[in-house]
Design brief:
The chain has about 625 residues and is α+β, with helices and mostly antiparallel strands. The protein is about 50% helix and about 15% strand. Helix 12 packs antiparallel against helix 14, helix 13 packs antiparallel against helix 14 and helix 22 crosses helix 23.
Length: about 625
């Protein structure tokens, strides 16, 4: 049907305006496009465009579904409502590379080649949309989300993305010298009315002294006030530069359990001291209060009460437009604090541990990528000298205290029982190494699938060197075994990318939530798998996914542009997940990784489709690189 004879021109215009990039066209440009359009109906299974033949049409799916097969055989994409195809051959002036087949009965808008190319030439944004690939669109989408969030922040006045520079006052900063007496330091702090005094050797910061130090290290122990202040100061304090984002500073303070952060200029000279109260006043959030409350908790119930504020804090951070990486790192920091405090409380109740050990976490917490609703994945790594007959009773009780407390604090018991309460996950470093070597030297598809979480490990309390040394040996063994790496790559490549049906997504049935899209399983986990495989292959020490991808690019294991694409993809899908979880909380629902695509905006739906295509392509490349192209 030619559009000159069609009465539904207005309806078509309304439809196009709802989808990128047509929404950016003027009324006259849209009218020109529609005048050059014809409507075609294709029965299921019929061919729309043949591979290798000239193509004269830019096509838009109005309803139904269309499958693109590269060269007529290999599945390239499945398109639903508003999906576009045919444009690559029009832009490059060659024959069609894809065969387009109606996967379902489909109604297709077809625009003649001259009209499409004329609009491409006249409208830069329209041209850019079709010239760039999915990954580039994702990077633009992330930038767009940040820009949109910036507008919201101006209204909410939360200032989460401002730098520490915005907290620094104009008055001169008072500093002390390491050889001045405690009495002189206290007198100076009183005169200038500060609770924290930087101690400098010349212009070099060497320590800080706080009111708390004076109470605990001087008055509390009766120290001679004529002693040098260097004896009571906190030496080599953690610092930040003035350009550091406030959110980064908040996470640093929560991670290090500190309440004052010296700020330096580019030359390293201290120019201010920012307190946790300064940040809280700027954010207008309880985000840092949670970390402080966990540290002050006197029992497991106190830890649970503190972590109970996390959902509200997450809503505030998401509402303030904080990017997904910072939100995830913050949520992970609270999780780490809960683990540490419960372990400390357990040791206070049971007495000092009889042998040196480390608390090791696996999975998302190890990667600093937690979201709400995470379960526990932890274990103990013991130093040589551990004797189960003598020591395991203590550590069994300690593990039970910690894991029960974590469950009460919202970190569910692991369904697979990967917890320190399970004696299988209480081992010496040597025993852990033997387990890993067993997986590496005798790989089994199911065992590899179940063991991948353990290759994301990090110590969060105790003797961290035990875990650091273990990880180095494990990664060295993995990197030298190509067969094992092929199993890891094949395991990753089995991920079913949910493209093609039900408005571009393959859905699964959840007993509680109905037909949903699992963002963790189908979007986040495969990117984690890709990064992990490259980290194992190159013995990369990073655990965080984005850091692994950057390190893989630096090591030559991955193209730098591909790494950037995957990082943008990872940021986008996690941003969608956090916004989804914040919306669930607002509706009084428990947070999950499952979402109903019907609730997605068109912006999110289109860019999730781009994300899934990128993930599928990179899983294929991973399989080809490490698994010989065999899944």
């Amino acid at each position: 049907m030619a559009m000159d004879d069609a009465p539904e021109t207005a309806e078509i215009a309304d439809f196009l305006r709802q989808h990128p990039p047509f929404g950016g066209l003027s009324d006259s440009e849209l009218a020109t496009l529609i005048r050059a359009m014809e409507i075609r109906y294709y029965r299921r299974g019929s061919t729309i465009t043949s591979a290798g033949e000239p193509n004269e049409w830019f096509s838009i799916v109005r309803s139904g579904a269309v499958e693109l097969r590269l060269g007529g055989s290999d599945l390239n994409a499945r398109l639903g409502e508003a999906g576009c195809f045919g444009y690559p051959s029009l832009l490059r002036g060659g024959h069609a590379q894809n065969e387009a087949i109606a996967l379902e009965d489909a109604l297709v808008y077809r625009v003649a080649k001259p009209a499409f190319l004329s609009l491409v030439e006249a409208h830069p944004d329209f041209r850019a949309y079709f010239e760039i690939d999915e990954a580039s669109r994702l990077r633009r989408a992330v930038d767009s989300l940040r820009a949109t969030a910036a507008s919201g922040r101006e209204l909410q006045d939360l200032g989460a993305h401002a730098s520490l520079q915005s907290l620094i006052g104009r008055r001169d900063l008072a500093t002390g010298r390491p050889d001045m007496t405690v009495s002189d330091a206290a007198r100076l702090m009183t005169q200038v009315d500060v609770s924290t005094l930087p101690i400098c050797d010349g212009e070099t910061l060497v320590g800080i002294v706080t009111d708390k130090d004076l109470r605990r290290r001087v008055l509390g122990v009766g120290l001679d006030l004529s002693r040098p202040v260097s004896e009571i100061m906190t030496a080599s304090p953690v610092t930040a530069v003035a350009e550091t984002p406030i959110l980064t500073a908040l996470i640093t303070m929560a991670e290090r359990h500190i309440h004052h952060l010296p700020v330096t200029d580019t030359a390293g000279k201290v120019i201010a001291v920012v307190s946790s109260n300064d940040i809280l006043s700027q954010l207008g959030s309880n985000a840092l209060h949670i970390a402080k409350a966990i540290g002050a908790a006197s029992d497991s119930q106190g830890v649970a009460q503190a972590t109970g504020q996390l959902p509200q804090a997450l809503k505030g951070l998401v509402g303030a437009g904080v990017d997904a990486d910072h939100v995830s790192r913050y949520v992970s920091t609270i999780g780490e604090n809960a683990h540490r405090r419960l372990l400390q409380l357990g040791e206070e109740r049971l007495g000092p541990p009889p042998v040196a050990y480390a608390l090791v976490c696996f999975g998302s917490l190890a990667r600093a990528e937690q979201a709400l609703g995470s379960d526990q994945d932890n274990g103990f790594v013991f130093a040589p000298g551990y004797d189960p007959a003598l020591h395991d009773g203590y550590f069994e009780d300690l593990a039970r205290h910690m894991c029960d407390g974590l469950n009460a604090a919202g970190y569910r018991y692991c369904p697979g029982d990967i917890m320190a309460t399970n004696p299988v996950y209480r081992r010496t470093a040597g025993q852990w190494l033997d387990v890993f070597r067993g997986w590496i030297e005798n790989p089994d598809p199911q065992a590899v699938l179940e063991s991948t979480i353990f290759f994301d490990m990090r110590a969060i309390s105790g003797e961290a060197a035990l875990v650091d040394d273990l990880r180095k040996q494990v990664f060295a063994a993995a990197a030298s075994d190509r067969i094992f790496l092929s199993f890891i790559a094949r395991s990753a490549a089995t991920t079913r990318v949910p493209l093609g049906f039900f408005r571009n997504f393959l859905l699964h049935d959840d007993a509680d939530e109905g037909r949903v899209l699992d963002l963790k399983k189908h979007a986040i986990a495969p990117i984690v798998d890709i990064a992990r495989t490259h980290a194992l292959a190159r013995e990369l020490t990073a655990t965080n996914t984005a850091e692994r991808l950057k390190a893989a690019a630096d090591a030559g294991s991955m193209n730098a542009e591909v790494a950037d694409d995957l990082i943008a993809c990872f940021e986008f899908v996690r941003d969608v997940r956090f916004r989804h979880q914040a919306e669930q909380l607002s509706r009084g629902e428990p947070p999950s990784n499952n979402l109903d695509p019907a609730r997605l905006s068109r912006f999110d739906r289109e860019h999730l489709r781009d994300a899934f295509r990128l993930i599928r392509d990179q899983l294929d490349k991973l399989r080809g690189t490490f698994a010989g192209g065999v899944a």
